[in-house]
UniProtKB/TrEMBL annotation:
Catalytic-site annotation from UniProt: 81 (proton donor/acceptor)
Source species of the chain: Lutimaribacter pacificus
UniProt-recorded name of the protein: Leucine dehydrogenase
Domain Glutamate/phenylalanine/leucine/valine/L-tryptophan dehydrogenase C-terminal: 145-352
Alphabetized SMART domains for the sequence: ELFV_dehydrog
Keyword Electron transport part of the UniProt annotation: no
GO biological process: amino acid metabolic process
Length: 359
């Protein structure tokens, strides 16, 4: 039986639940950071965390990030996340995924789960046997399928908005763009950049994808440890988080950073280093929201969720963020965080007034 144990969440978080199913080996957490804008939504990550404390820290950080992402994407959803402790290559089983599905079901729709690192569409289908609150499915009436093409399109549109601000034109023809990570999102983004006439520099650990980019997209290859030695106009981090440190920010030749990777800034202070160096950083959680915008149609069970039209929300946000950053002197991430605070305060106020109106 899946057990749920409530833990006291830190201030500012709505709910933290420890989940366990001894039979299948399920151990993890579900965190609901905020339901101010709607039911919480965010993926489930499976990772061999060193300790339950490490998993707990991660779920809190990720759930809060989803509140930010979903608020600015304007999709009527709050922020939450789940983590499962274990190695997805060896510890995953149908029983474990179904036990996880039962834990999500027990929250009664307060939290919608989907794929994240270590969890595939097929895994979600197992969880969905126990709950309608598991989404990102490959088939079914409202199934939204692979979110990566939408994420890539959102990044591309934001990059054009950023180029407009930095270079005075959103044309990418002839711009040198370095794409780090040619996975689901990075390769799709590289294809769009090639079609737009950009000069591609690419980096990955996988030789096969590099060869493909060289052959099909005329890309130049850069070794993973030489990224910050390259001359480039735009840097698109599409691999892992933490790539921008004080040190790498100092070396970066790009004037614009716009990519899909989550948590690109190794620490909050790096935003100021980038700003001081005249580099515009487009906040990752705004830029990479295309995937959750696509999945939101499935959550809302909408027949007319116009994903393409909704995607334009994020490049409009980016234009607003850049304009406010320019006039206020604040970093782009500080401006984005202020916008989130405003949206959450308004949502809380609206809910209070509705309650009072009903009383
Ligand atoms: P993916 O696993 O398909 O691709 C990641 C790629 O990065 C792989 O090809 C890998 O070999 C490469 N890589 C890893 N370390 C590298 C390094 N040091 N140097 C160069 N390349 C390296 O992942 P994805 O789905 O394309 O997602 C990319 C990033 O975007 C992740 O950070 C993810 O969290 C984020 N993101 C993805 C989506 C989505 O819709 N898939 C949505 C939001 C955010």
């Amino acid at each position: 039986m899946t057990e749920l144990r409530e833990e006291t969440p830190p201030e500012g978080f709505e709910r933290l639940v420890r989940i366990e199913d001894p039979e299948s080996g399920l151990r993890g957490f579900i965190c609901i950071h905020s339901t101010a804008c709607g039911p919480a939504a965010g993926g489930c990550r499976m990772w061999p965390y060193d300790s339950p404390e490490a998993a707990r820290r991660d779920v809190l950080r990720l759930a809060e990030g989803m509140t930010h992402k979903n608020a600015l994407a304007d999709i009527g959803l709050g922020g939450g996340k789940a983590v499962i402790i274990g190695d997805p290559a060896t510890d995953k089983s149908a029983a474990l995924l179904r036990a996880f599905g039962r834990a999500v079901e027990a929250l009664g729709g307060q939290y919608y789960t989907a794929e994240d690192v270590g969890i595939s569409t097929d895994d979600m289908a197992q969880a969905a046997m126990e709950t309608p609150y598991a989404v990102g499915l490959g088939s079914g009436r409202y199934a939204s399928g692979d979110p990566s093409p939408f994420t890539a399109e959102g990044v591309f549109q934001c990059m054009k908005a950023g180029a407009d601000e930095v270079f005075g034109t959103d044309e990418l023809t002839g711009r040198r763009v370095l794409v780090q990570g040619l996975g689901h999102v990075g390769m799709a983004l590289a294809g769009k950049l090639h079609a737009a006439g950009a000069k591609l520099i690419v980096s990955d650990l996988d030789r096969a994808v590099l060869d493909r980019a060289m052959r099909d997209l005329g890309a130049t290859i850069c070794p993973p440890d030489a990224i910050f030695d390259q001359e480039m106009d735009i840097f698109a981090p599409c691999a892992l988080g933490g790539i921008l440190t004080h040190d790498t920010a100092d070396k970066l030749t790009a004037r614009l950073v716009c990519g899909a990777a989550n948590n690109q800034l190794a620490s909050a202070g790096v935003a100021e280093t980038l700003r001081a160096a005249g580099i515009r950083y487009l906040p990752d959680y705004v830029v990479n929201a295309g995937g959750i915008i696509s999945i939101a149609g499935e959550i809302h069970r909408s027949d007319d969720w116009n994903r393409e039209a909704r995607l334009t929300t994020i490049s409009r946000r980016i234009r607003d963020i850049l304009a406010t950053s320019r006039t206020s002197g604040k970093t782009t991430i500080a401006v984005a965080n202020d916008m989130v605070d405003g949206i959450l305060a308004k949502a809380a106020n609206d809910a209070r007034r509705e309650r009072e109106g009903l009383e």
